[in-house]
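Curious: why this fold?
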Amino acid sequence: MATAAAQPMPAQAVASYQRVEPGSINIPVADLSQIKAVKPEKVDQATEQWVSSFNKAIQSSDFNGLSDLFLPEAHWRDHLCLSWDCHTFNGPEKMKEFLKKECRLKSVAVDKSSEFRSPTVTVFDGQGKIPGIQTFLTTESDVGRGLGVARLVQQDSKLKAFSLFTSMRELKGHEEKVFGRRPEGVAHGGQPGRKNWQERRIADENFEDSEPTVLILGAGQGGLTPAARLKMLDVPTLIIDRNPRIGDNWRNRYHQLVLHDPVWYDHLPYVNFPPHWPIFTPKDKLAEFFETYAKLLELNVWTSTTIKESKWDPSKKRWTVVVERTKEPGVSETRILHPKHIIQATGHSGEKSFPSHIPGIKGFNGDRLCHSSEFSGAKMNGSGKRAIVVGCCNSGHDIAQDYYEKGYDVTMVQRSSTCVISSESILKIGLAGLYDETGPPVEDADVTFWSIPSSVLKSIQIDVTALQNKNDAKLLEGLEKAGFKLDQGPDRAGLFMKYFQRGGGYYIDVGASQLIIDGKIKIKQGQEIAEVQSNGLKFADGSELPADEIIFATGYKNMRTQARNIFGDELADQVKDVWGFDEEGEVRTMWRKTGHPGFWFFGGNLAMCRYWSRMIALQIKALEEGICEYSDR
């Protein structure tokens, strides 16, 4: 499982599908070819023996016992159990080096609370050549409890770890207020002037006599999920959003938008989608669910609210934030808040990436020219109208399909290449067995997925992508014949790794690919735009394309750019870049310390927000209770 040294990749020096976020790492593919293992015997007994030996090793002063318990190429991935950050250590020597500075982990135990969590024989690679035992673990550190996953292979009648994952799930003495810790909901007895639930709820939501400890900017999944986790940890939290309603960040997007991820992958913390819910969620239905979710969990949300001023006081370790809140048409108020933490949850990307530098872009005389985020939908009865969509990822395809269905003559401009996978392959191959109708509870699925070291995941995804391509062979062949340029993601590792490393560059096909194959959506491939003309586009090769409408589905900038606009240069210069892998294979800055105390970035798809909302909430709760300091490793 040896990996080559990770190297940053200059964006312009490599093919587009190999590009990463600037300054981030093209995580190397784990070499699994040299790992020899046999099918384990006496599974339960052998697992317990390994766990016992592991506990002795971490409780020793030198941790030397770890060398006998891990393969030389093994990984130990940790989320908040060993430190107040996320790390992946490759090889026993790096593990020991980190632990010798401080080992917060006290012990682990085999988790047999369900059949899925119990020790079982499976395979750890994408080709089924490395058999081993996978078991969930319960973990205990000096301050918390959690879950882990051990993957153990048998060599010479002895078990060694292929990979180990440890994570915190709760802080001792500060457990979530759920199940046996749920509130009473009523205070019996004679209490003159006692308020009922509705009165208390209004007072809480308006922060009439209190201040929020955490201020979250954005009421999409990136704002609602950490607010829900913080609510259960009794941390006063306020979400603000400039839109009039919760869910408008989805509701206001293009007319035909439907989630490309299936429902089993998209559940929110504490409240799953109901069993009748469609596999793919329409945007307006998701927006309605978000509103309901906020009400059910009693989240404090101020809509039609914007930040006017903000300043961090390092001596008091708190913010002063001036917000303007429109409570009803014509009625607004200004409030001064003093939160200790701000979470920017305005989407995992920042400002729209709009090519305003293209010559002539202000001189277009057609009906519409805008970024995809401003596209409300194609107009009805578009016969005789011509549309150009610049960009060939999910949004570009969806918008082009909308134009076609409304009767437009539509052309997509594909400047580089796109990774295309059918939704069928995602369901039946990519997510099958983990996120599907008969899969494990979604929390267990999340632990399983995030327990895989990134370099190992990349190796597995190469094989998964090959299987998906085989299933999609006819589709992919048709696209290539139509002049659509395909790629297989970084190192042929497909959609997941392209998303993690670059944040885009892919399309999950829900119908537009066949329209391209049939010539109903035309393709202009491999040419940069030289000029926007009054009636269309001119390309670098001299060709021209007339249009009545032009949509730039050209993505978004780094979240740091939006932080600069909202909070100023001082903060933006202090925080680190967001997204893409660091040297250890952990996603940079998102959900973790940003470099500026009291300021956090949060975003990602619904599945990421579900998992990482717990991690960011635990970090904030630990800071607020004095369990850790921001400077702690």
The CA atoms of residues 1 and 35 lie 7 Å apart. The mean pLDDT is 94.
